[in-house]
Design goal:
The chain has eleven helices and five strands, in the order H-H-H-H-H-H-H-E-H-H-E-E-H-E-H-E. The protein is of the alpha+beta class. The chain has two domains: 100 residues, no CATH class; 146 residues, Alpha-Beta Plaits (2-Layer Sandwich). A five-stranded mixed β-sheet has the order 2-3-1-4-5, with helices on both faces. Helix 8 crosses helix 9.
Length: 316
C-alpha cells in the first residue's frame, strides 16, 4: 500500500496481524507484485484499473474488492465559498444509476471467480486413497469374517465340520423331512480299536490317522453330503435325499475305502458303522439314538461291519 494511505489504519484494526508493506507509489507497488516480491497491492479501484490497463495488461489482475467502501472527497479553496457550495449541490444531485454508469464506463473491470484446480485434484486424490483404504479394509474384514465363520464350524484337527455345525445340519435336514416328506439318512462311523493306536504309537500318530481317515471320507461321499467329526474317533455323515438302504450302500463303500487305505505309521485299519434315517414322526434325538444303536450292533458283530436300524420311536 502507498505510504500514508488512511485505509492502512482501518485495515490494521479490522485484520489483526496483517502484514502491510508501504511502497512509494502505485507503480512501485504493482512492479513488486509483478516481480513476486509482494503478495498483492491495495489501492483505489479506478487508479489500479487505469495503471493495469496502461502498463500491466496480461500480467496482473484485480483479484478482489474490500468489503467496506471508502468515500473520497473534493477539496475547494477557503477563499471561494461559492465554489464549495456548487460542488456540494452537484454531488448531491448525482443519482446512483448515473454514478454507476459513469464508473462502469471508466473502470471496465470484469470480475472473474477463479477455481483452484490443484486443490480439487488434491481432494480427488485424497478421496481416491481413502476409497482404496476403505475397500482394502472391507475385503480384509470380510476375509477375516469368512475365516472366523469357517473356524467356528470346522474341526481344528481334521478340517471336517465340528459338532456345532453338524447339530445345525441335523436340524435343517429334519425340518426338510418334516416339511417335504423326503428321505434323509445318517451314518455314524467309529474307528476300530483306535485306543491301541494312541497307546502304541502316541497321540501325534493318532491325530495323523484321524486326518487321513477324514480325507478318505471326504473323497468318497457325495458333494451334497455333510461329513463331521462327532467326537474323538467317531464321525457322522448326514445324507440328504437317500433312503436307509442307499445309506447302507454308502456306508459299505466307505468301510471298504477305509479298509483298503494304507495309513502312514500304522498300515491298515478298519472301522464300524451304523445307519438310520429321519422320519417325520421321529425326533432328532430318537434318530441319533437309532444310529448309535446300529453302530453298537456292528461293534458286537466283530466290527468292520455296517448295521442298520430304521427310524422308530424310542421305547417309552
Amino acid at each position: 500500500m502507498v505510504k500514508g494511505y488512511s485505509v492502512e489504519e482501518s485495515l490494521r484494526k479490522e485484520v489483526p496481524g496483517i502484514n502491510i508493506i508501504e511502497v512509494e507509489s502505485i507503480n512501485d507497488g504493482l512492479q513488486q507484485v509483478e516481480n513476486g516480491q509482494l503478495y498483492g497491492y491495495i489501492d483505489n479501484l479506478m487508479t489500479i484499473a487505469t495503471a493495469i490497463q496502461k502498463d500491466y495488461t496480461g500480467s496482473l489482475k484485480i483479484s478482489s474488492r474490500l468489503e467496506n467502501d471508502i468515500n473520497l472527497s473534493i477539496a475547494t479553496r477557503n477563499d471561494e465559498p461559492l465554489l464549495q457550495e456548487i460542488f456540494q449541490k452537484l454531488i448531491h444531485n448525482i443519482d446512483p444509476e448515473f454514478k454507476q454508469a459513469t464508473f462502469n464506463k471508466w473502470v471496465p473491470v470484469k470480475q472473474e471467480v477463479s477455481f483452484d484446480y490443484s486443490l480439487m485434484w488434491k481432494i480427488i486424490i485424497g478421496l481416491f486413497l481413502l476409497s482404496l483404504g476403505f475397500i482394502y479394509h472391507y475385503h480384509q474384514l470380510r476375509r477375516l469374517n469368512q475365516r472366523l465363520k469357517k473356524l467356528s464350524v470346522t474341526d481344528k484337527l481334521t478340517g471336517l465340520y465340528n459338532r456345532v455345525k453338524m447339530d445345525d445340519v441335523l436340524i435343517e435336514q429334519k425340518a426338510e423331512v418334516d416339511r417335504y416328506n423326503v428321505n434323509a439318512s445318517i451314518i455314524l462311523l467309529d474307528i476300530d480299536f483306535f485306543k491301541r493306536v494312541n497307546d502304541t504309537y502316541g497321540h501325534a500318530v493318532g491325530d495323523a490317522v484321524l486326518v487321513e481317515l477324514s480325507n478318505v471320507l471326504q473323497e468318497n461321499v457325495r458333494s451334497t453330503d455333510y461329513v463331521g467329526r462327532w467326537g474323538g474317533e467317531e464321525f457322522i455323515i448326514v445324507c440328504p435325499h437317500i433312503d436307509v438302504e442307499e445309506g447302507r450302500n454308502l456306508a459299505e463303500k466307505l468301510l471298504a475305502k477305509i479298509r483298503e487305505h494304507s495309513y502312514k505309521h500304522i498300515g491298515k485299519m478298519t472301522a464300524s458303522a451304523g445307519v438310520s434315517n429321519f422320519l417325520p414322526s421321529v425326533t432328532i434325538k430318537e434318530s441319533l439314538y437309532n444310529v448309535d444303536q446300529a453302530l453298537y450292533q456292528s461293534k458286537l458283530a466283530n466290527r468292520d461291519k455296517v448295521s442298520v436300524k430304521k427310524g422308530m420311536e424310542l421305547p417309552r
